[in-house]
Amino acid sequence: MKVLVADDDADLRELIAFTLMQAGHLVVKAGDGPAALRHFGAEGPDLVLLDINMPGLSGFQVCETIRARSRVPVMMLTVRGEEEDLVRALGLGADDYLTKPFSPRTLLARVKALLRRAGMESTAPLAAGRISLDLEEHTVRIGAAEPVRLTKLELRLLQMLLANAGHAVNPERLLIQVWGHRSGGDRQLLKQLVHRLRQKIEADPAAPAVLRTAAAGYKLVVD
User: Fold this and answer.
1) What is the pTM of this model?
2) What confidence score (pLDDT) does residue 34 get?
3) What is the per-residue pLDDT for 21?
4) In terms of Cα–Cα distance, which of 76, 116, 80 is closest to 98?
5) CATH of 2-117, one of 3.30.2130.30, 3.40.50.2300, 3.30.420.10, 3.40.50.720
6) CA geometry: angle at 93 spanning 90 and 11, to 5°?
7) What's the rounded Cα separation, in Å, for the pair 7 and 102?
8) What distance separates the 2 farthest-apart alpha carbons in the chain?
């Protein structure tokens, strides 16, 4: 699942993103209302977490705009606890409402429950072409070959690449998805992770046919 997290509190936004990525979700982050709408249009998330108090456009305004064009599940996040806000959020089409502060376990439980109510909870493998990724078992299968077990970091990397199969993904996006942050010094770590993954999934790691290096980053070939 791809989740859009929109919150102007950078520390909380990073914590929420890390929690969701640990649970196997792809995460797109926004720090204000206009950015949230831009990412929503560009990324097509399966779930949206919206802070109510954001600059540019409030969470209420973003929710109303999203609901005018999509039925994607929306959960509002706020430090407020007033019934009036809850009623307004639900009236605008929000599906759930979580008051800060909350624990990572509570967040994951509420996200899981919301996806289940929306009929979106699934343990089915993520697949494209001949590649199938099992998020529950931490394994990947290519064609008719036996499943190969992955580490958590390998799983996150392959999940991001598979979600963008056939298209190059730049290193910055991969760093954020795998480790939750980006830094120029971390590119070597990414290269090492790609090398280890190729040892597992390529017939000839020295001449990769599945996980290729592209001008803009890395690309998964699924044909």
Assistant:
1) 0.69
2) 97
3) 85
4) 76
5) 3.40.50.2300
6) 75
7) 14
8) 61
